[in-house]
Design a protein that fits this description.
alpha/beta; about 350 residues; Rossmann fold; single chain; elongated; five-stranded parallel β-sheet; 2 domains; about 20% strand; 11 helices
Length: about 350
């Protein structure tokens, strides 16, 4: 008997796998990698996940989420939380994806680390029947951490497994999980900020992008993680680098997109300062405003004229300069700021 477990890297999913192993079931695991990480961050994340899962001797499958996942983020059936977090839709999507893997892996059922009442958007008792129904996997999703609080699943009813040894955890307390981790000698990932989509500032940028462009891209989501973001018009936005690392990222993006129309890179000449990336279809006034914002964050003294270099992408990419004044209080950045 084999089961496929959804593995987030957190303690709950580690414990869920361990409890199912104790029921005499072979387990493989899957992690759905969201498209927010840079390649370097992704490599580090994968190494960490492999280290955690190695404690249980379980094979880990990595599924990189793509365009079908982005469509879920753009228009979630069950709506967003406080930010741009469609938690219930995401969870249903992950379970469906895992369900599609079951036959190829020879898995008879799925396992999750869900706990009754732990998360208001996706882990309350009434959500579980909704999740099971919409995934088409009713009765085949086993939640061992709250097993004794939930109706028996098909694997239990058919005698494939017994969950009598499993706890009855509910709510957000972590005492029982920590006791179990100590019992099994498990190293685990301390709870952090959770999914990036739950971050209010990041969520504001995601929703702005959907409103302006009507769709999301992997590159676009990654760019939302860096810099100061400004919406200059419905068709033009800007990202101002905050440090050398972000400037390099913005320059790299411009270089990669240099043959694509609608990408601009600005730099105030003559003093240290940020690179600014412009995206979209600007008017002449939009570019002038962006040059003023770029000068505003440069190290030029106040009340001085500043020359700003503008690189424009496209088949006939070109370079121009514009002269602007850096005057304190002359530009109301808040009217443009996304976050």
């Amino acid at each position: 008997m084999k089961a496929l477990a959804l593995f987030s890297g957190g303690l709950d999913s580690l414990l869920a796998i361990k409890l199912i192993q104790e029921a005499g079931v072979e387990v493989e695991a899957v992690n759905f990698l969201q498209p927010f990480l840079t390649p370097a961050e992704e490599e580090k994340r994968l190494a960490h996940l492999q280290k955690l899962i190695a404690q249980l001797g379980v094979k880990l499958h990595i599924v990189r989420l793509g365009e079908d996942y982005l469509r879920i983020l753009e228009s979630p059936k069950h709506g967003y939380g406080k930010a741009a977090n469609p938690c219930l839709d995401c969870h249903i999507f992950f379970l469906r994806k895992a369900g599609e893997m079951m036959d190829a892996l020879g898995a008879a059922f799925l396992v999750t680390g869900e706990v009754v009442g732990q998360r208001p958007k996706s882990q309350y008792r009434g959500a579980f029947p909704k999740i099971d129904e919409e995934t088409g996997l009713a009765g085949l999703i086993v939640r061992p951490l709250s097993a004794r609080l939930l109706p028996p699943t098909i694997p239990e009813e058919k005698g494939w497994i017994s969950l009598d040894h499993c706890p009855s955890i509910q709510g957000r307390q972590r005492k029982i999980q920590l006791e179990l981790a100590a019992k099994y000698g498990l190293e685990y990932e301390a709870p952090a900020g959770g999914c990036l989509l739950t971050n209010v500032e990041y969520g504001r940028k995601v929703k702005d992008l959907i409103k302006a462009d009507g769709h999301l891209t992997v590159d676009g989501l990654r760019l939302l993680r860096i810099g100061r973001h400004f919406r200059l018009s419905p068709h033009f936005k800007a990202i101002v680098g905050r440090n050398l690392r972000e400037n390099r990222t913005l320059f790299r993006y411009f270089y990669q997109q240099r043959h694509t129309e609608g990408v601009y890179l600005l730099k105030a000449l003559g003093a240290p300062g940020p690179l600014t990336l412009g995206l979209g279809k600007p008017t002449a006034d939009d570019l002038k405003t962006l040059a003023r914002i770029t000068a505003r964050y440069s190290d030029h003294p106040w009340t001085t004229p500043v020359t700003v270099k503008i690189l424009a992408s496209g088949q006939e990419h070109h370079r121009t300069t514009v002269s602007v004044a850096k005057e304190q209080g002359a530009l109301d950045l808040e009217q443009f700021r996304i976050t």
